[in-house]
Write a structure and sequence with these properties.
Layout lengths: L1 E6 L2 H14 L4 E6 L1 H10 L5 E5 L9 H10 L5 E5 L7 H5 L4 E4 L4 H11 L11 E5 H7 L7 E6 L2 E6 L7 H9 L4 E5 H16 L11 H19 L6 H19 L4 H7 L7 H19 L5 H13 L7 H4 L4 H5 L5 H8 L1 H10 L6 H9 L20 H18 L6 H6 L1 H7 L2 H15 L5
Parallel strand pairs: 1-2, 1-3, 3-4, 4-5
Antiparallel strand pairs: 6-9, 7-8
Helix pairs in contact: 1-8, 2-3, 6-10, 7-9, 9-10, 9-12, 10-12, 10-13, 12-13, 12-19, 13-18, 17-18, 18-19, 19-22
Bound molecules: fe (ii) ion (2 copies).
Length: 452
């Protein structure tokens, strides 16, 4: 069963969709940003059993177009509106009422019961039993996770595994993920009140749940979920769960970057000594690349998304940490590894990008960045020895960030950006094309004494 959630407030939509998926069995929520996108999507695929639309302006006027489209083309589709006001107070809806209107703040139990009635399902009892919650959602929730967590032993038997009275450490989740346990259970009662608190906190613009994680907790969670994705991929397909875990890491990275911390602060927060190489490398890379995008004035949420996702997947075809440490063609050719393996390493940007190309939801730019991440401005890179004008601007930024991260990691996290830019070799290497522009802009900022 598919439900379309037309969202206008991202965080609120996350809470609503988590509530619906955990409390209504066999339902998949597709989140869509805004009414226009919803109409476009429905033109391609109208196989939805219910639409829940959050209005943007609180008065329902922005969703009328979507409602008209739905009622004229798929008339039997129940349309549930989430608004600040009742249908009678919205002129159009007063004469053409939708299936139901729910007034904010949303009570998740009422929402679930309206959806179940619309789907002609027997209502679930929400005061007993357990809800199944993906661990990736729990990882995003932060330290206000005041719910005891259970694992399911048999159909009716659950055992409490974590008594949570606040912070749940990253390791607590990683131990389940390592065993390929992607879901935990919580008492439905606790869960409903938790979601309601979450929705209220967002509505009142108090600090939304998940935002109280500090920098090192954030980077810890990103790197440990990436480590898991990487390990799991060596013996698994890129399953839905792994894709979601990657997505959760991307969102945590964007949250970190939007906290507007300086590069040095973010790097200090990464526990380079304890986190496995690829996890730490990819996390640092996402944060450095996004930070450079800010300095370049290229910062948009879409750019952050592409850069972070590329960072998390760029070395996905390398199973060994040692291989990911080889940065240049000569590093690989002088590594002493057998020639077949060397060829494989030299080809890993193609392999990783081919892997990404199979995932239809990943933007093409991510695929290009991954394919080009070992190219060099002077044409000495691999796998395609591209010249500088063949390297896209976003790839150039990524290559620049990848070099900086290489330096940071070789120095065990003690990186001094000022002395990095004093190296005359760097100017020779970079001074052309998009890389030149990046190099000069960042260097100017550093020379002006700005802490980037
Ligand atoms: Fe690589
Ligand atoms: Fe890499």
């Amino acid at each position: 069963m598919k439900l379309m959630l037309v969202k206008n407030l991202d965080l609120q939509a996350d809470a609503i969709s988590l509530g619906i998926e955990a409390l209504i069995p066999e339902i998949a929520v597709k989140q869509v940003s805004g009414c226009r996108e919803a109409i476009e999507l429905l033109k391609l695929d109208s196989d939805y059993q219910c639409i829940v639309a959050e209005d943007k302006f609180g008065d329902g006027t922005d969703v009328i177009e979507l409602f008209k489209y739905v009622s004229s083309t798929i008339s039997a589709l129940p349309f549930i509106l989430i608004s600040n006001t009742t249908a009678e107070r919205i002129p159009y809806f007063a004469s053409h009422p939708p299936y139901s209107v729910l007034i904010r703040p949303i009570d998740v139990a009422s929402l679930v019961s309206v959806i179940q009635t619309a789907l002609k399902q027997a209502p679930s009892a929400l005061d007993e039993g357990y809800a199944k919650v993906p661990i990736k959602n729990l990882m995003l929730l932060g330290s206000t996770l005041e719910m005891d967590l259970y694992v399911k032993i048999t159909e009716n038997k659950y055992v409490m595994v974590e008594k949570t009275d606040g912070a749940v450490a990253t390791e607590d989740f990683t131990k389940y993920l390592k065993r390929q346990v992607f879901f935990l259970y919580v008492k439905k009662e606790d869960f409903c009140s938790f979601i309601n608190r979450w929705l209220t906190s967002i509505r009142n613009s108090t600090q939304p749940i998940g935002d109280e994680l500090d920098l090192s907790q954030l980077t810890d969670r990103i790197s440990s979920s990436l480590t898991i994705v990487n390990k799991a991929l060596s013996f698994h397909e890129y399953t839905e769960e792994l894709a979601q875990l990657t997505d959760a890491s991307v969102r945590l990275a964007i949250k970190t970057i939007q906290s507007n911390k300086k590069l040095s602060e973010m790097m200090k927060a990464i526990n380079f000594e304890e986190i496995p190489y690829i996890g730490a490398h990819s996390t640092a890379l996402a944060l450095v690349a996004c930070r450079l995008a800010i300095i370049m004035d290229w910062a948009t949420s879409a750019t952050f998304y592409k850069l972070a996702l590329a960072a998390f997947l760029h070395d996905i075809s390398l199973e060994e940490d040692l291989w990911a440490k080889l940065e240049s063609k000569s590093d690989v050719l002088e590594s002493g590894l057998d020639s077949e393996l060397q060829q494989r390493i030299l080809n890993h940007p193609m392999q990783s990008s081919a892997f990404v190309a199979k995932e239809s939801e990943i933007p093409t730019e991510v695929e290009i960045i991954i394919r080009q991440h070992h190219e060099r401005a002077d044409g000495s890179g691999f796998p395609n020895s591209l010249s500088t004008n063949e390297i896209t601007a976003l790839s150039a930024l990524f290559i620049f960030a990848h070099d900086i991260v290489g330096n940071i990691m070789r120095s065990g996290g003690r990186f001094d950006i000022k002395s990095y830019f004093l190296n005359p070799e760097l100017a020779k290497q970079y001074d052309r094309g998009s890389l030149g522009l990046l190099y000069r802009t960042v260097k100017t900022q550093v020379n002006l004494g700005h802490d980037i």
